């Protein structure tokens, strides 16, 4: 129940403390007058200053500001140089503080039966304009510091009649011109009010106190009148009127009461359920008094802790402690709580702080003392305590919920109901929307005076509600958990602290079952429930008033732990079922065979049981587990997960091993009571869809969402930390956290399993139809069943799962997430609104525009966040188009879902996509793409096509998904013909820029050619997808229309990439467009795209055209291979042309530079001399395919003689054939040498990457039919700058020929792949000197 949220050590005593309502900020002041602002969520110090003396940093900053503004001469002593004196009070002030203070005052006054409801609560106009003030009240001055700009303003007491300041309070009912007002209580008993606009004294409250005013508090009476109460050292409590106009400068008290002897220390406002608000005062006489705000009579006076005076008091309302209404503290180590203040008024310690703080924080010989305390106004589970060792923020069970459960609403009723427990009574809460026309269900044309339609307003919706008493009493008034069965016929209440449970029949509220149990969980499919029985109820020891000895405390704690352990070990999970006659029967006496104690039950489609782990785990995990175990876990709301496979891989990998939760959660079947799946980490709560299609498991930092049909599948996890409860509404999960209300839109998508399951169901239906037909009409029925049927092929595309989170409500005044404003161009308003402020104008324009026909159109993507109700909430669900919530005070709240951005999503998730499209007419068209993407994720691509504002690109995707290929083609043609779509650059890709020459005119020509088909080029992939989709659904006309344009783009050089050209060629061949395909080949040849042209010719099946493609584009190596493989008669001519091209590449080319400098430098170069033999004759290059004779002379076969082979010299110009096993041949002649020929064996071909390829050689083709590697060789001509190739034919095994000392250049290597040893390879090379 209790855990440490944050701790900040300090060397001085913390005597003043305050929390910001919406931001995680805390301001403290210690007894040395040092003020510090701390972010308790991120453990960071925001600002620090020494308020009691002179803060040098602020003084220097003020002087620099004056210098920057041009003020050189100081007119006097700056206010920053005035010593502040003792710090009396610290507080925050901004729009959030202002709003929530006013909200608290109004809601407390509205609880009274005689409350006057003048008008609906509306947000006050923003007054601080986004600034956050830190206000410090010191004896000698008041400091107003802006935490945004870090600029401050000091108001010395000389401007407030030169009286010392002792307390302050902000006033919220102020005149029109005053702006924000702050009241200061002074030492002379006068209250002075300062305007934060003019920084001048606005008015005084005089004639009341005789002593120093010590505390101020504003509140609202049940009549609606704004009041101010003050307490002073004279012991008086005086009530003043805060409803004043501009002209009232002096105000006199309305009422004076004698409250305490010795002076009033503090005053606090308490909200009472079903009654008028109360005032709580503490005095120097060590008493606490409670006052009625209607008659202002004293209701009760107690001494909370004997012999010790209280110095802080706070109103508290927490569902885990329903009877504790007041918190107070004295100078000891406890936080004290007062139970039933107006009845028994028992004081008990809420917590012992020495057990909460870190052990090293308190010195062994030092005692912990509390000096101040404050409860969070919006999150009652957070309490901040100032002590002599630092600040402690305690968290009291943030996951406990109010004891209320919603009941099923009759079909024709607009009134909804919920049952709740108050003290020992069972009551019924009835609630419905309080307006004749529900704004969330239509009426879109009715505009309010502010220019906003009623449905789009983020103000609270008016709710009509009432409470009825149920005659059936309940046995206990302690903490209880309520839950309703799946049918709505039964209500289960469990009191974990007793422990006891009762099951009531809703129709007559009779008790159906009861007994001893700590936890209860319902099945979501049938009226059966599981309970955790406890034979030995643990008794909670009550520590008497006053501080008892340490030994007694330890003994009491040990006794409680022993009792809890004994009860846990003897507890068992029992399942009972409720029959139609209202009787309860035991189905299973003990679920599960595990010996560990049970610490949690979660209901749902499967029963989840959490066990206490005994293995050693990390300290971080231990802290989390102890928090989970300390709360009474029960299946409130819904619970569980149907995993047929463990889902650890889905989310536990995101956490570090030190933070990994223990595997202590087991799921059981309600039918067989057998385990389902393995052990899982224990969730904090679980929620199941009513149709058992989805489930959610909540952990501390995220919620895991899974799909259950056709089989368990992990969908993802959403980062919603500290979630307390959730309710499914079809594919919408409404989640409540301590600070926000979120909605998660969920869709499982389409997987292969879904398609297979659908096919199996269709086959099963066909078999059932056949069986029924045979049974009715005999065997003759099969003739009609198996007859020819015209079936249309349906394309089912896979769709990934979708999770989208939208925040509906939060505490912050301004939206914490920007609403993505898209202001319309026509933002001019009517003339009668000319007096409207700029902020109001922007706010109005950002929410609503008026479209044609007077239809209001929201121009924001999502609505501004609504105000979350205060405290823990029970999420009832969606009824009447609004989200219902119930708070701790049993008040129903309605959150509007009528903004079109939310409404359309809710309708689509619910399954009504047609209505979602209709509602989209109220949403700005610039947001239709976003909505269409959402509907596509939900599986409504066809319906999303009807949205009028979607872009053409998204329209094409939707048309493809919905198989509307004619519309997809129309969109594609529109996009490809548009000049405005896709002009991101010049239209040239990186490869096109690299392939083009450096000549400027070529680049211009290429760019102009591409520009003509720019649209088709940009959407080439979409054209190919459309052709494939049309082919799959037998829509040939659409495919041919798209092919026509794609082929036109293929005729432009550099337009399409290689894979796109190949794809278009395949599709042209598939459609029999041979004429268009042959013209495409000719165009590609003309453009010089040999690879793509050859591939297209291969698809066409024309070898001659394929050879022409290689030859005409200069890729002669591929042409030779192709001709050799197919026995083409043009082989000899191709080989000659190829060798001539190689010859030209190795010959030196004259320099292109003709300027004088280049010629002079060339003349200085040393000419490269060759040998006399080479100078006389250079043999031409000749590389031939295997098996082909030499082009110069027939090959001469010489019988190999080992002795003569080593000494004989080859004649230049004649081929030399060597037929011998591998030997080493040495040539002593320095002028000529044999080239190294290393043909690899066919079994181990060398990779082509390892062969050095010259820059002039064409790369090998890796295209399908264009590259010929069916047993034929792939010669790679290799030439060096100093290497020449002659016509010698060498037929030999690999030989090693070391070069002579006179010729240092190595010989070239010609590698052959997949060639047998008997093949003649006419390839050789001569080195150049």
UniProtKB/TrEMBL annotation:
<feature type="compositionally biased region" description="Low complexity">
    <location>
        <begin position="1215"/>
        <end position="1228"/>
    </location>
</feature>
<feature type="repeat" description="WD">
    <location>
        <begin position="257"/>
        <end position="301"/>
    </location>
</feature>
<feature type="compositionally biased region" description="Polar residues">
    <location>
        <begin position="1311"/>
        <end position="1323"/>
    </location>
</feature>
<feature type="compositionally biased region" description="Polar residues">
    <location>
        <begin position="1277"/>
        <end position="1299"/>
    </location>
</feature>
<feature type="region of interest" description="Disordered">
    <location>
        <begin position="1200"/>
        <end position="1329"/>
    </location>
</feature>
<dbReference type="InterPro" id="IPR053290">
    <property type="entry name" value="TSET_complex_member"/>
</dbReference>
<dbReference type="Pfam" id="PF00400">
    <property type="entry name" value="WD40"/>
</dbReference>
<feature type="region of interest" description="Disordered">
    <location>
        <begin position="822"/>
        <end position="846"/>
    </location>
</feature>
<dbReference type="InterPro" id="IPR001680">
    <property type="entry name" value="WD40_rpt"/>
</dbReference>
<protein>
    <submittedName>
        <fullName>Uncharacterized protein LOC101494449 isoform X1</fullName>
    </submittedName>
</protein>
<keyword id="KW-0853">WD repeat</keyword>
<feature type="compositionally biased region" description="Basic and acidic residues">
    <location>
        <begin position="827"/>
        <end position="846"/>
    </location>
</feature>
<dbReference type="InterPro" id="IPR036322">
    <property type="entry name" value="WD40_repeat_dom_sf"/>
</dbReference>
<dbReference type="InterPro" id="IPR015943">
    <property type="entry name" value="WD40/YVTN_repeat-like_dom_sf"/>
</dbReference>
